[in-house]
């Protein structure tokens, strides 16, 4: 299933081919096959390359074949995509649950995901060639998806069924200020508060212990301590420049 094949039938818009390549690459898939596209040179079309946005290698490796039978050569389990279930044909599944079931098999199949044309979707004959129909759960009043959007959703669900990718580690948390740095800030801030007349040394009213508790709860970083000390420094400078009151 890691080598799943994405098959586009009779696609007519070069941009959708490029966007499909991009959707595949970000989820780690690379086998793209086009069945009788509207334009024979669609893989090298300027719009396709532009919409691929870094996935031009997928376009370079992609193949164009005349029939769906050719595209399914080597595929063990083919999934058609359709907005609504059919009265006749293979069973319809929600993608995520089917992918999970296939991935859990002792010998997972080589998967083929088949997408119809932008305007007409898949013909009944093409659907009948597949083992299952995938219906993406959408709002019941509006289920129209762009071709590349549908590819992206299925590629994501398939990748998740295969274990997903590890999210890149975020930027490490900044270093927390130690108790000595916080005490230095409190001493500095106390001087500044006296300078501006906010704190009366004769009647402090537990202001500094309360600020100490506030800073402890905030878990100040070293950079934040530097910022607050800079503010305290400027408070004292401004008070001195203003002169005695």
TrEMBL record:
Broad class of where this protein is predominantly found: cytoplasm
GO terms classed as biological process: methylation
EC numbers on record: 2.1.1.200
CDD domains (UniProt xref): SpoU-like_TrmJ
tRNA/rRNA methyltransferase SpoU type domain ranges (all copies): 5-156
Homology family: Belongs to the class IV-like SAM-binding methyltransferase superfamily. RNA methyltransferase TrmH family.
Protein name: tRNA (cytidine/uridine-2'-O-)-methyltransferase TrmJ
């Amino acid at each position: 299933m890691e080598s799943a094949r994405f098959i586009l039938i009779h696609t007519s818009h070069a941009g959708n081919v490029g966007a499909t390549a991009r959707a595949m690459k970000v989820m780690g898939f690379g086998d793209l096959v086009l069945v009788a596209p509207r334009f024979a040179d669609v893989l090298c079309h300027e719009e396709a390359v532009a919409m691929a946005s870094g996935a031009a290698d997928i376009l370079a490796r992609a193949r164009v074949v005349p029939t769906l039978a050719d595209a399914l050569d080597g595929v063990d389990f083919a999934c058609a995509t359709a907005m609504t279930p059919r009265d006749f044909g293979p069973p319809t599944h929600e993608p995520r649950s089917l992918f999970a079931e296939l991935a859990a098999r002792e010998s997972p199949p080589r998967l083929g995901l088949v997408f119809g044309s932008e305007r007409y979707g898949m013909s009944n004959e093409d659907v009948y060639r597949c083992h299952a129909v995938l219906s993406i759960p959408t709002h019941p009043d509006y289920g129209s998806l762009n071709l590349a959007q549908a590819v992206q959703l299925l590629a994501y669900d398939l990748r998740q069924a295969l274990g997903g990718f590890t999210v890149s580690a975020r930027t490490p948390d900044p270093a927390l200020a130690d108790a000595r740095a916080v005490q230095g800030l409190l001493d500095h801030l106390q001087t500044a508060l006296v300078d501006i007349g906010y704190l009366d040394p004769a009647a402090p009213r537990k202001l500094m212990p309360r600020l100490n508790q506030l800073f402890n709860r905030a878990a100040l970083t070293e950079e934040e301590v530097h910022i607050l000390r800079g503010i305290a420094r400027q408070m004292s400078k401004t008070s001195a420049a203003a002169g005695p009151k």
